[in-house]
Write a structure and sequence with these properties.
By secondary structure, the chain is α/β, with parallel strands linked by helices. It has 10 helices and 8 strands. An 8-stranded parallel beta barrel has the order 1-2-3-4-5-6-7-8, surrounded by 6 helices. The mean pLDDT is about 95.
Length: about 240
């Protein structure tokens, strides 16, 4: 038998519904798929968050959305306002993008204040924050400094990527982030984890969440290996994470 349970892998997945070309039928189908597979969360475009939260109410699947997505260049005031709106719409986990330009400029005071603003809003409401680095643009020293800042600010997760940069999660980056983040900070992989074996590999590194649009394929394979019945759900072909 495999050395994992279904919940072990299903509750690692944040089902992604962020592709800007997804229409409302795609979003509705995606939410139903996430419910059927009982994943950790649905990460959805902000405009559809309220509807998503309504559909997920009473389930063990959390509603999540993005802040400052995908480039992180919003002003801090706008990121704070986005966070407040998201909380009001039922968001339980906020995936925010750091100001990549400020990271590359070495303006760490700005970066810290920017991250802190979103964490403050979320934690005051009892909700959680994943801080997206977009590692494909950063040096290892910059990634380490971000891990240190997020640890000091008590972020809930550090996250590799948006899925829309020039690269996604790599094992080297995940190991670096796990090593340099405080023990209470979790690590999320995003971009490039498309198969069950890849998910299991990052789990071994210490990753607790993974952004995925190929949820049905990953968890369908998990269920087959575990001898569980297949789940029949209509899957959109217009995903993207």
């Amino acid at each position: 038998m495999p050395d994992f349970s279904y919940a072990d892998v299903a509750k690692m997945i944040d089902h992604s519904l962020l592709n800007p070309t997804l229409n409302t039928d795609d979003l509705e189908a995606g939410i139903q798929l996430a419910l059927a597979y009982d994943v950790a969360s649905v990460c959805i475009m902000p405009y559809y968050l309220k509807r998503c939260a309504e559909l997920l109410a009473g389930s063990t699947v959390r509603a999540s959305t993005t802040i400052g997505f995908p480039h992180g260049g919003h002003t801090t005031a706008i990121k704070r306002a986005e966070a407040e709106r998201a909380i009001a719409d039922g968001c339980e986990e906020l995936d925010m993008v750091v100001n990549i330009s400020k990271v590359l400029s070495g303006d760490w005071d700005y970066v810290r204040t920017d991250i802190a603003a979103v964490i403050e809003v979320a934690h005051a409401a009892g909700q959680k924050v994943k801080v997206i680095f977009e590692n494909c643009y950063l040096s290892d020293d910059q990634k380490v400094r971000l891990c240190e800042i997020c640890s000091e600010l008590n972020a809930d997760w550090v996250k590799t990527s948006t899925g829309y940069g020039t690269g996604g999660a790599t094992h080297a980056d995940l190991k670096l982030m796990r090593k340099h983040s405080a023990d209470h900070i979790q690590v999320k992989a995003a971009g490039g984890v498309r198969e069950l074996d890849a998910l299991l590999e990052v789990r071994e590194i210490g990753v607790t969440r993974c952004g995925a649009s190929r949820t049905a394929e990953i968890l369908g394979e998990a269920r087959r290996r575990l001898g569980m019945p297949e789940i029949q759900v209509t899957v959109s072909n217009n995903a993207g994470y």
